[in-house]
């Protein structure tokens, strides 16, 4: 709906009756003739910027299909005669284009020219406003470029610009005198007679703006902002009144009544000021509608007594005040109809033991039928204890047990007849992994086994699948399943990762995961040619991809293999030195080169900072990771930034370099920064938030 000139435009749909909106828990079946129902509409008035387009929604359903008509200021609005308005096909939704063909232009400012003869002296007055302490003044042109001063051109203590003698190059269209007052005051906010609602209040724009979310009536009052500096303070009081558009307390809902039944529609709303409630029937104010002896008006309530066939109608409730309005539609349907089951017949439902279970029995009839549930065709109706019956016909079993299996029958009846439907319930044991895989380490070339023993309901088919790093396993990985366990006969580097066993039936599943770590060994043959036993051996390893120095560790001399801590994604060579009481041997020849497996980064880039090179930019820089910290191929950096003290979304970018320039910033404002290293194996940890500043002026 669109408010224009104090009037309200209404969408009218013509068919059997006017618009109605679906709201009842028991619905009229779609194959019956019924008046139109609004299913989508614009809920508020529009305040329009002429540069924007707007869409006013009006969608409806009904049998037969509805047609749509719009009223504007109380008269039929022909959408075909206004080139700015288009109504969608098979819909009442309007698309309105307010844009003009040409954008408006700002008016030009006219400045008085100062004419002077070359060689003559000249004074350009500044006349800054007075202040304590006195302002700092300076001259610039409109491009924010300072006016150069020298022994010929200078500025006086009062801010005036003095020319000893004027030259042709002094000719400019815009000399601007600027005044800056210091010191900058600090700003605080108070509420008279109480505290600021801390959970609602947010201070922005360097405390100059107080924003309050979810305003309620208790937020009304006097708010004070106080600006304080070393020279004193000043206060400003803002009086806040909280007014409210209407909101629902009780919204009218659809009624289905049989002849001679009673019922009521209630329309209650609140707001500030209190809303006025108006009732309409079939699109006309109720006071102008044909007399209906079965209808009694009582303010915000309509009471129906002994309704008669043929009196079905659409009622609208409009609750409005000066700040807005609410409109609700309710269809009062007077029908004689035997009960009908609306859902599928004779369903088989399988559930897991001890779970909440719902058996559905959707129905319709008029008068409103009575519904009862029975189990195995015996006993009284089921309701209470383990069972709960909902108004829409659903039976809830709060905790399904094995003894709850059986055939459940719902019986729906009214004075015109009865109908029933059956649901067969089977209660199954849950699927559980009773022995899952465990974290383990395996040497390269050895065998590994990951267990997955499953217990399930004997009547259910359970399928067990394995995943590696959340991806289904392929036979190319050289593995085999043995009694649902996973065996890897020849462990290699690529087998390292997280393995997940997934056991799934038709109605439930269970998972268990474990990590397999592949160990690398350095092996060697101890020498015995010296005649003295070797007390220690020292396997040294040379990192050949970087300029890092060699490393070494000592181990007992009776070993011929050791496990060494190595960095990921590095080329290594190994040498062994034997040491005894006499001394140490010469190093062995270097081993062949060996590349360790890659991994995601585990280091955070250091030295993150942001600073401006110009008044409207900020350069973000950081130190690159060391080669030993790269851990994998295609190292790159993810950088985030946003203005401090705002709720703005983070901006981000990815680069392989060590800096990024942020353009079009405000002058000297703080920014939050963070960074993360990434490679083809994944992402490393995020840095702590650092603080940077855009450029000064």
Automatic annotation (TrEMBL):
Native organism taxonomy: Eukaryota, Metazoa, Chordata, Craniata, Vertebrata
Residue ranges constituting the Ig-like domain according to the UniProt record: 36-241, 246-333, 339-426, 430-517
Segment forming the signal sequence: 1-25
Domain Fibronectin type-III: 604-697
Residue intervals of the PLAT domain: 669-697
GO CC, any one term: plasma membrane
Keyword set, alphabetical order: Cell adhesion, Cell membrane, Disulfide bond, Glycoprotein, Immunoglobulin domain, Membrane, Repeat, Signal, Transmembrane, Transmembrane helix
Protein name (database record): Neurofascin
Gene Ontology process terms (BP): axon guidance; brain development
Organism, scientific name: Muraenolepis orangiensis (Patagonian moray cod)
Membrane topology: Single-pass type I membrane protein
């Amino acid at each position: 709906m669109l408010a224009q000139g104090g009037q309200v435009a209404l969408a009218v749909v013509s068919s059997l009756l006017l618009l109605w909106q679906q709201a009842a828990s028991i619905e009229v079946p779609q194959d019956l003739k019924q008046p139109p129902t609004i299913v989508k509409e614009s809920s508020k008035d529009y305040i329009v910027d002429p540069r924007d387009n707007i869409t006013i929604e009006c969608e409806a359903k009904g049998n037969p299909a509805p047609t749509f008509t719009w009223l504007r200021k109380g008269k039929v609005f022909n959408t075909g005669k206004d080139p700015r308005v288009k109504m969608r096909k098979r819909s009442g939704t309007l698309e309105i284009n307010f844009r003009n063909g040409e954008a408006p232009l700002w008016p030009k400012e006219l400045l008085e020219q100062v004419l002077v003869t070359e060689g003559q002296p000249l004074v350009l007055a500044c006349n800054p406003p007075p202040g304590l302490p006195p302002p700092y003044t300076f001259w610039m042109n409109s491009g924010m470029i300072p006016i150069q001063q020298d022994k010929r051109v200078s500025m006086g203590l009062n801010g005036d610009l003095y020319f000893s003698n004027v030259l042709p190059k002094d000719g400019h269209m815009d000399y601007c005198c600027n005044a800056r007052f210091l010191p900058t005051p600090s700003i605080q906010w108070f509420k008279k007679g109480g505290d600021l609602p801390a959970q609602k209040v947010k201070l922005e724009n360097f405390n100059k703006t107080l924003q309050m979310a979810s305003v309620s009536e208790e937020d009304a009052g006097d708010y004070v902002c106080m600006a304080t500096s070393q020279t004193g303070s000043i206060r400003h009081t803002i009086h806040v009144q909280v007014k409210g558009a209407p909101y629902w307390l009780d919204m009218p809902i659809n009624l289905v009544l049989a002849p001679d039944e009673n019922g009521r529609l209630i329309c209650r709303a609140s707001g500030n000021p209190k809303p006025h409630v108006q009732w309409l029937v079939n699109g006309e104010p109720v006071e102008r509608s044909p007399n209906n002896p079965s209808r009694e008006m009582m303010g915000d309530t309509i009471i129906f007594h002994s309704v008669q066939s043929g009196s079905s109608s659409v009622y609208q409730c409009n609750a409005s005040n000066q700040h807005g309005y609410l409109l609700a539609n309710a269809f009062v349907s007077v029908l004689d109809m035997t009960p009908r089951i609306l859902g599928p017949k004779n369903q088989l439902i399988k559930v897991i033991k001890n779970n909440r279970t719902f058996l559905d029995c959707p129905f319709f009839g008029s008068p409103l039928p009575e519904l009862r549930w029975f189990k195995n065709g015996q006993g009284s109706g089921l309701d209470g204890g383990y069972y709960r019956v909902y108004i829409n016909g659903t039976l809830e079993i709060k905790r399904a047990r094995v003894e709850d299996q059986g055939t459940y029958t719902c019986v729906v009846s009214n004075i015109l007849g009865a109908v029933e439907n059956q649901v067969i319930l089977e209660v199954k044991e849950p699927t559980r992994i009773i022995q899952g895989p465990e974290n383990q380490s395996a040497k390269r070339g050895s065998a590994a086994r990951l267990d997955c023993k499953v217990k399930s309901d004997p009547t259910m088919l359970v399928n067990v699948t394995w995943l590696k790093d959340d991806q289904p396993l392929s036979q190319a990985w050289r593995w085999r399943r043995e009694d649902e366990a996973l065996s890897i006969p020849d462990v290699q580097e690529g087998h390292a990762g997280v393995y997940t066993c997934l056991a799934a039936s038709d109605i439930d599943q269970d998972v268990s995961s474990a990590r397999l770590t592949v160990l690398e060994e350095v092996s060697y043959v101890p020498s015995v040619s010296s005649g003295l036993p070797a007390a220690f051996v020292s396997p040294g390893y040379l990192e050949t991809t970087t300029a890092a120095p060699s490393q070494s560790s000592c181990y007992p001399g009776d070993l011929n293999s050791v496990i060494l801590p190595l960095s990921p994604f590095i080329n290594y060579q190994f040498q062994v030195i034997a040491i005894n009481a006499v001394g140490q041997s010469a190093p062995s020849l270097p081993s062949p080169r060996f590349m360790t497996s890659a991994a995601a980064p585990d280091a955070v880039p250091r030295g993150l900072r942001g600073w401006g090179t110009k008044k409207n930019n900020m350069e973000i820089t950081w130190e690159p990771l060391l080669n030993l910290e790269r851990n994998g191929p295609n190292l790159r950096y993810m950088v985030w930034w946003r203005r401090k003290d705002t709720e703005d979304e983070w901006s981000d970018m990815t680069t392989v370099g060590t800096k990024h320039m942020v353009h079009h910033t405000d002058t000297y404002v703080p920014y939050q920064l963070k960074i993360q290293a990434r490679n083809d194996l994944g992402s490393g940890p995020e840095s702590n938030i650092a603080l940077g500043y855009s450029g000064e002026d």
